Amino acid sequence: ESEDFFESCTPRLDDTYRFYLNKVTGLDREYNSGALHIRDLLSPLFGTLKESVQFNYCFDIAWMVKQFPPEFRDRPVLIIHGDKREAKARLLQQAQPFPHVRFCQAKLDIAFGTHHTKMMLLWYEEGFRVIILTSNLIRADWYQKTQGMWMSPLFPRLPEGSRPSAGESPTFFKRDLLEYLASYRAPELEEWIQRIKEHDLSETRVYLVASTPGRYVGPDMERWGHLRLRKLLHEHTNPIPGEERWPVIGQFSSIGSMGADKTKWLAGEFQRTLTTLGKSSLHPSPPIHLLYPSVEDVRLSLEGFPAGGSLPYSIQTAQKQLWLHSYFHRWKADRSGRSHAMPHIKTYMRVSPDFTQLAWFLITSANLSKAAWGALEKNNSQVMVRSYELGVLYVPSAFDMKTFPIDETPFPVSSSTSGFPVPFDLPPTSYSPKDQPWIWNISYSQEPDTHGNIWVPS
Ligand SMILES: O=C(O)c1cnc2c(S(=O)(=O)O)cccc2c1O
Question: Sign (positive/negative) of CA torsion 396, 375, 387, 293?
C-alpha cells in the first residue's frame, strides 16, 4: 500500500514519535541523519502534492517556492499569516510573480497578538499529511538553528459516504484540528476543513495544544493555551510517587513580560499547569529549569551574534524581571551536535530526577509569554489569549507506556531505541554567575563572535 512504499524509500526515519529536527548546515553528517530539510518535507517521497496550506509568521515567498520540487512548483499554496496594513501589502507584493500563491489574513483583534502558528497541510493524490513545526518560511530558519517538527502519518482518504466523525484518533486529533481551523472563521479554510473530514486521521497518537486569540469563560477556558495543556495532563497522565522531585523544563526562543515577581504568572497559574500529573490534588513545587541562550551561547554559535536576531528578548522587558533570570540554563545540545545551533525550537517537558525518563513532552510554537499561553483575569473567571500558537503533546499513555525512556544519544538515529529523542543535554546547565541572558537590543562589543563581528543594534 502507498504508505509502505513511501515509508520504505523515505530517509530512514524513526517513526515511533514522528518528532524530527531540521538539518543544520555544517554539522558532521551523523548529526543530520534522520534530520529533515524543508525540501525533504516537500519531496515526492512523502506524497504526490496537489495543494498545500502554509501557516506561519515570517515568509520569503520566492525562497519558499524554490523549496518545492519542480514538478510541484505550480501547485496552489494558501498562505495563512497575521500581517496587516503595510506589512500585508509587502507580503502580497512578494507573491506578485507567483499566481498560484494565495493569502488569508488571520484575525488579530486583540493588541500585541501575533500569528505564530507554523503548520503545513499537504493534500496529495495518495491522501493527506499534517506537519506542525517551529521554523519560519525563510532561509535563515532552515540553515543553522535548532528547530523541530511533528510529521503526521500519511492519512488515507475515507471510503465514500463515511460519517465526518469517522477517521477520529484515540487522541481526538481530528476533532481538535478541525476546531482549531474553524476558529479562524476564514472562508479560505472551509474547503480544507471539508477535505480533512474526508480523511482517516485515526493513526495520530499526539494531542493538539493550540492557542487562538480571545477571551474565554466557563468550559471554553480549557480549550486553548496553558489551561488546555493542564486539562490534557489532568486527563491523560497519572500521578507519580515523588513527583515533587520531577523537574519541569521549559525551553524557548523569546520571553514576554512576566510581571514584577514570579507569583504574578510563572510560579502561579503557569507552574500549576506544568506540574499537573493526573488527578492528584497535590500542588508540588518541583524544580523549574528554563532554557534560554546566554550571550556567550549566541556569540560562539555557528551564526554568531546574528543568531540573536531570532531571540527577540528586549532590554525593556528584561529589566522589569531580573528575578526570572535565576531560573535560566544555557543552550547545550552536544547529544544532537547542536550546542552551536541556536534554538528556535520550543519544548516543554516533565523529567525524572535522574533525567532518564519523561512524564510528557510538548513541542510548540509558544514561547514563554502570557500572550501565547493565556493569562487568567477577572478573579480567574476568564482567560485571555492574544496569539495563534500550535503544538503537539506526547503522553506515555498514548504509546502504551508508563513513562517515555529518554534516548541520550538520539544521533545518529537508530530504529533500535524506543527512547524519546530530547534534542538538548540533560541535566540542564545553570548560567554561571557571569552569564547573562541574550538581549537583542543592546550592544556586545567586547569580544567578537565566530565570524569576527560585534553586535551593535541600530
Ligand atoms: O518565529 C516566530 O514566530 C517569530 C516571531 N517574532 C519574531 C520577532 S518579533 O516579532 O518578536 O520582533 C523577532 C525575531 C524573530 C521572531 C520570530 O522568529
Answer: negative
**What is the Cα–Cα distance from 312 to 298, expressed in whole angstroms?**
12
Does pLDDT of 268 surpass 50?
yes
Residue 319 and residue 364: Cα distance in Å, rounded? Answer: 27
Q: How does residue 10 score in pLDDT terms, banded at 50, 70 and 90? A: very low
Rounded CA-CA distance 10/47 in Å is: 10
In angstroms, the CA 41 to CA 276 distance is 34
Could you tell me the three cell numbers for 32? 543530520
Buried b (16+ CB within 10 A) or exposed e, 4-31: eebeeeeeebbeebbbbbbbbeebeeeb
- Ranges of H-type helices in 237-349: 271-274, 295-299, 315-318
Model confidence pLDDT, tens digit, residues 427-457: 999 999 999 999 999 999 999 999 999 999 9
Tell me if 116 CB under 6 Å of ligand 1: yes
Best residue for ligand 1 mutational test, from 59, 84, 114 (most atoms within 8 Å of Cβ): 114
Residue 305, C-alpha cell as written in the block: 551574534
- ipTM, 2 dp: 0.99
Shortest-distance Cα residue to atom 17 of ligand 1: 310
Q: Which helix (H) or strand (E) holds 217?
A: strand 214-217
Quote the percentage of the chain above a pLDDT of 70.
97
Q: Is 451 a catalytic residue?
A: no
Q: Would you say residue 417 has pLDDT above 90?
A: no
> Sheet containing 77-81: which strands, arranged edge to edge?
19-21, 148-151, 128-133, 119-124, 49-55, 77-81, 101-105
Q: Is the pLDDT of residue 2 over 70?
A: no
> How does residue 14 score in pLDDT terms, banded at 50, 70 and 90?
low
Q: Is the pTM of this model over 0.90?
A: yes
Over its C-alpha atoms, the chain yields an Rg (Å, rounded) of 21
Q: Is there a contact between 45 and 5 (Cβ–Cβ < 8 Å)?
A: no
* Catalytic residue list contains 116: yes
* Rounded distance between C-alpha atoms, residue 119 and residue 100, angstroms: 19
The three grid cell numbers given for residue 447, joined into one nine-digit string: 569580544
- Cell numbers 524557548 correspond to 252
Reduced to 3 states, what is the DSSP secondary structure of residue 88?
helix
CA angle at 395 for the pair 405 and 356, rounded to the nearest 5°: 20
What the block records as the C-alpha cell of 302 is 555557528
